């Protein structure tokens, strides 16, 4: 047997290598087989999923709309329990497979068509976009971490910015600059780019120059593109912890989801949590190669209904029954008003107005496309320390959607919308302000009188038309701002002055005043009995302030009111009855007649105009009162209460203050004339003096204080003197 191994025969353990290679082949084959089996499952799901007997929703939806298909993950789970978990764990692998399956099913469902030569050929089918939706609860934007990367996530928020639409390449056509050989390279979806090979595959012939490193040139005309847009999603204002800045997340939408969203829209999105290399990160983080920015590639999107934007949208059967039982009580209106700011003593009519504001009237769309607002605007004007800001804070906590802002710290752009230039792409995009973020809720504006006039003008359109029109930096658009406005203001002199006319006390333009449905003048009246009761109430509130253990009861009560408001706004849209319409018409005509008579007597127009807007205000109040009782018809009783509220607020405000045409005796007229002469002699044109000091000087000269005050008031109305800060008087003309 010598020499048996001389003929280059070598020993090798064949079994070992066979096993290893077969494992690798088996893994590759099994992955191919599993992908193929998943593809078949997806196709079977689209073709054969039945919602009811002989109803195939996905197949019919695909035929009716071949561009995209909305798939519910719950349906997928009931069809095959493995498919949703595959989509959740590695969506970027299986979602393209799902889209391929949808395109193949669509091709099978379409009839053959006649080609150019007259023969029957298969119809051309484009790509089908799969949009996923689910009934699961969204996760918080703050909890998204590294463990979610490349997984399917669901989050909700409010869109604050939308970029322009760009073209994103899906396949890039390359050509070698040396040998001109073409090559097609796929692009990663979302914000990822294409991976271009470093070298060309061409084998040079003898004598031919080899292709250099990086020889590729991009041919843009032959590449394939889809539409892409980036959005910025911010946490809902009510979900942001106190003292924290709201977080925002970059979203990438493509194909049929582009240009469907404007800033201010509340969204719930499903998407793939991904990462990308920011364009300007290399300058900020030198050497930080492994740091990437997170973003979400959206694969499903739904707008959140305004009524269900806070808390769960669905109400349990027990809750609905409890709400209906509560609404059927006789004293529903009184109970709701007692729950409005219980820590504030008195101000019953203001509480009723705030309750009407929280429930709101019914929004109407007319056949010619005009939309009538259903939201109620309320202005509280009056002395300091009359709990105006407390009302605003209560509404901010109780309303389903609310934004609180202060007049001095708010600009026109901050309230409406601003155009901002993006740092990396240098293009302009739109960012919504407070009125846009509170769409479907309430905006509370404190220190309304401290706002600059040009900023106050910016909210005129938002208060009546309930839209915000923007034409800046080449961006022309209209944003929704269907909000109620609750504003608090002080008179120009700080306190409400009964010796002044209504115009001087309410130093706001007629244009903005007519947009408020109810205007309350809140005075700090000094009455011994009332002061005693208020002092006792405040001391009791401080002394018996509830401890942390019983806070849950108060929050539960507050949450119940919030849920009830939410339910009423979603389910009830009342209309006026015929009897109520007739009563309202006659009462409105009487109010107009009385105001005209008053202006004829005094010789000047009312500080607060009574126009058709005020008639609409009474209609909205009547509807809000009916909505509190879950009634679909506003009755005469509702109209009577709405008129009473209107009369104790806006009508009283219009009649408030001193009347110029007071019956003056000749002696009084002579005293006033003397006081005027002394004031003119005492002050030269342009001189300033404190009002108190001027009155004291004239009293020392033997004049009556009330005559001096009346003389100053008359001179102020004629424009001869004017008030400046801290009650200083300056003479303008003599």
From TrEMBL:
UniProt family annotation: Belongs to the MCM family.
The protein's Enzyme Commission number: 3.6.4.12
Catalytic activity: ATP + H2O = ADP + phosphate + H(+)
Protein's cellular compartments: Nucleus
Assembly information from the UniProt record: Component of the MCM2-7 complex.
CDD domains: MCM5
InterPro entries with a match to the protein in the record: MCM (IPR031327), MCM5 (IPR008048), MCM5_C (IPR054125), MCM_CS (IPR018525), MCM_dom (IPR001208), MCM_lid (IPR041562), MCM_N (IPR027925), MCM_OB (IPR033762)
One GO cellular component term noted in the UniProt record for this chain: nucleus
SMART domains hit by this protein: MCM
Main location class: nucleus
Biological processes, Gene Ontology terms: DNA replication initiation; double-strand break repair via break-induced replication
Name of the protein: DNA replication licensing factor MCM5
Protein's job: Acts as component of the MCM2-7 complex (MCM complex) which is the replicative helicase essential for 'once per cell cycle' DNA replication initiation and elongation in eukaryotic cells. The active ATPase sites in the MCM2-7 ring are formed through the interaction surfaces of two neighboring subunits such that a critical structure of a conserved arginine finger motif is provided in trans relative to the ATP-binding site of the Walker A box of the adjacent subunit. The six ATPase active sites, however, are likely to contribute differentially to the complex helicase activity. Probable component of the MCM2-7 complex (MCM complex) that may function as a DNA helicase and which is essential to undergo a single round of replication initiation and elongation per cell cycle in eukaryotic cells.
């Amino acid at each position: 047997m010598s020499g048996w191994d001389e003929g280059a025969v070598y020993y090798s353990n064949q079994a070992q290598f066979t096993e290893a290679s077969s494992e690798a082949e088996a893994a590759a084959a099994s992955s191919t087989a599993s992908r193929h089996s998943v593809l078949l499952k997806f196709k079977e799901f689209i073709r054969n999923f039945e919602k009811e007997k002989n109803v195939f929703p996905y197949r019919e939806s695909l035929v009716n709309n071949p561009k995209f298909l909305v798939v519910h993950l719950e349906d997928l789970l009931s069809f095959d329990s493995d498919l949703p978990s595959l989509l959740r764990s590695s969506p970027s692998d299986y979602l393209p497979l799902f889209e391929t399956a949808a395109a193949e099913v669509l091709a099978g469902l379409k009839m053959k068509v006649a080609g150019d030569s007259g023969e029957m050929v298969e119809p051309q089918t484009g790509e089908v976009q799969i949009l996923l939706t689910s009934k699961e609860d969204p996760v918080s934007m703050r909890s998204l971490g590294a463990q979610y990367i490349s997984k399917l996530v669901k989050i909700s928020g409010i869109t604050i910015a939308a970029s322009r639409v760009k073209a994103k390449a899906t396949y890039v056509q390359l050509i070698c600059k040396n040998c001109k050989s073409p090559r097609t390279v796929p692009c990663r979806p979302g914000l990822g780019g294409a991976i271009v090979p470093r070298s060309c595959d061409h084998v040079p012939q003898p004598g031919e120059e080899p292709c250099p490193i990086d020889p590729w040139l991009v041919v843009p005309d032959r590449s394939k593109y889809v539409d892409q847009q980036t959005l910025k999603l911010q946490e809902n204002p009510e979900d942001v912890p106190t003292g924290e800045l709201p977080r925002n997340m970059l979203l990438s939408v493509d194909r049929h989801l582009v240009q469907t969203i404007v800033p201010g829209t509340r969204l719930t999105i499903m998407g793939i949590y991904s990462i990308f290399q920011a364009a300007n990160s290399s300058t900020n983080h030198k050497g930080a190669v492994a740091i990437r920015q997170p973003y979400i590639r959206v694969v499903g999107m739904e707008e959140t209904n305004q009524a269900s934007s806070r808390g769960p949208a669905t109400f349990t059967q027990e809750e609905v029954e409890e709400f209906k039982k509560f609404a059927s009580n006789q004293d529903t209106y009184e109970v709701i008003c007692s729950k409005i700011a219980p820590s504030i003593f008195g101000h019953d009519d203001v509480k009723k107005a705030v309750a009407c504001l929280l429930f709101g009237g019914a929004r109407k769309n007319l056949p010619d496309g005009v939309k009538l607002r259903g939201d109620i605007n309320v202005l509280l004007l009056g002395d300091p320390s009359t709990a105006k800001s407390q009302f605003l804070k209560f509404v901010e906590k109780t309303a389903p959607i609310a934004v609180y802002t202060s007049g001095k710290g708010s600009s026109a752009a901050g309230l409406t919308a601003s155009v901002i230039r993006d740092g990396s792409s240098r293009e302009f995009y739109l960012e919504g302000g407070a009125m846009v973020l509170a769409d479907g809720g309430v905006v509370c504006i404190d220190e309304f009188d401290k706002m600059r006039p040009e900023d106050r003008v910016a909210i005129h359109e938002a208060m009546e038309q309930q839209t915000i029109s923007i034409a800046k930096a080449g961006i022309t658009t209209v944003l929704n701002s269907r909000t109620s406005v609750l504003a608090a203001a002080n008179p120009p002199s700080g306190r409400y002055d009964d010796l002044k006319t209504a115009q001087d006390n309410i130093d706001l333009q007629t244009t903005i005043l007519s947009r408020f449905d109810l205007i309350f003048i809140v005075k700090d009246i000094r009455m011994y009995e009332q002061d005693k009761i208020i002092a006792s109430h405040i001391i009791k509130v401080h002394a018996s302030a509830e401890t942390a253990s019983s806070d849950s009861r108060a929050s539960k009560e507050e949450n119940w009111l919030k849920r009830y408001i939410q339910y009423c706004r979603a389910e009830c849209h009342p209309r006026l009855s015929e009897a109520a319409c007739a009563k309202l018409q006659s009462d409105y005509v009487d109010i107009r007649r009385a105001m005209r008579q008053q202006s004829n007597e005094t010789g000047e127009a009312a500080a607060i105009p009574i126009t058709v807007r005020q008639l609409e205000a009474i209609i909205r109040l009547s509807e809000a009162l009916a909505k509190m009782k879950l009634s679909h018809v506003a009755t005469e009783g509702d109209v009577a209460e709405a008129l009473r509220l209107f009369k104790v607020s806006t009508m009283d405000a219009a009649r408030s203050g001193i009347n110029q045409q007071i019956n003056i005796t000749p002696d009084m007229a002579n005293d006033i004339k003397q006081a005027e002469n002394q004031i003119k002699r005492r002050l030269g044109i342009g001189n300033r003096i404190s009002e108190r000091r001027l009155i004291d000087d004239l009293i020392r000269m033997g004049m009556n204080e009330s005559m001096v005050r009346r003389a100053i008031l008359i001179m102020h109305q004629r424009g001869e003197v004017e008030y400046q800060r801290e009650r200083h008087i300056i003479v303008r003309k003599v």
